[in-house]
Amino acid sequence: MDAFDFAHSSRIAAGPLAFALAWWLLPEQFVAADGSAATFSSAGRATLAMMAWMAVWWLTEAVALEATALLPIALFPLLGIAGIGDAAAPYASDVVFLFLGGFMLAAALQRWGLDRRIAFAVLARVGSEPAQILAGLMVSTAFLSMWVSNTATAAIMVPIAISLAGLNASDGTGAVAEHRSASALVLAVAYSASIGGMATLIGSPPNGIAARFIAQTTGESISFAHWMLIASPASALMLVVCWWWLARRMPRAAPGSAPARRAAIAQSAAALGPMNRGERSTLAVCAITAALWIFRPLLAPLDLGGMRPFAALSDAGIAIGAAITL
User: Fold this and answer.
1) What percent helix, strand, coil does the chain show, rounded to 5?
2) Rounded CA gap, 31 and 51, in Å?
3) Other beta carbons within 10 Å of 254
4) N or C: which end of the chain has fewer CB within 10 A?
5) Model pTM above 0.70
6) What is the DSSP letter of 253?
């Protein structure tokens, strides 16, 4: 066995070893919330040990992340933690289907290049000064991150940011200015992707997990519109503060360089060509889906001739319907 195979096998074995170690190290008793002594049940010990196993495999990527996530379905029944029905139920929650539909919408945006078209459309309208370009880059990144994963958004926008950095050079060689500009613009993409991902339920997986946890612990479900109502203002404020902080570090533009920047952005936008049928269809589906998510609380009580056709409408159902349409 070569060194690579041995290292990989060691990472795989580390998971079950972490399970055994956690099981062995866990005390027989623990102090409950009310201060009384409680005994660890076999299922409780197995659950914590499973957490250790999965954490090791996720950290080392010994197996595919998705495969590690499915371990509870296979092992919870064997370890007496939960039956197969209870173990599998969380994998089919409404939050999972909401993200499934959201990921398909994001894939369609990327498939037809609408993400880049949206980015350049924003950049073409914000102006050509460095601070304005920074603002346009951050707004377009944050907007895309509301619907596309943070990582995918960053992958889309970083090449655009780097290409824009050279346009902001202010001295003869432009080396120092370009370095400062590139640093600010790339950081802007990273920060904006995270900030924009906060604004919607599908912007980032932790949002859905938080909404699900709140629903389970308080019984109060959080709709897509409710989340946006709370998170969007905070996200917008953070974006403005981040822009102000980064704009102070942008280099000054060279005199007379604005036309060149405008021309470069316009050329990149023109290179995308006119919108084709696939782009128009995808844009229409995404717009209708977003509208249904936002206005669902208003549609649910709507009475049409004694019937309420939208009463059972859910965010997850809207997402899956959009995915099927695409």
Assistant:
1) 75, 0, 25
2) 20
3) 17
4) N
5) no
6) P
CB of 105 within 8 A of CB of 323? Answer: yes
Element (H, E) at 29: strand 29-31
Domains of the chain, residue spans: 3-89, 97-325
Tokens standing for residue 271: 């290179």
d(CA 132, CA 144): 18
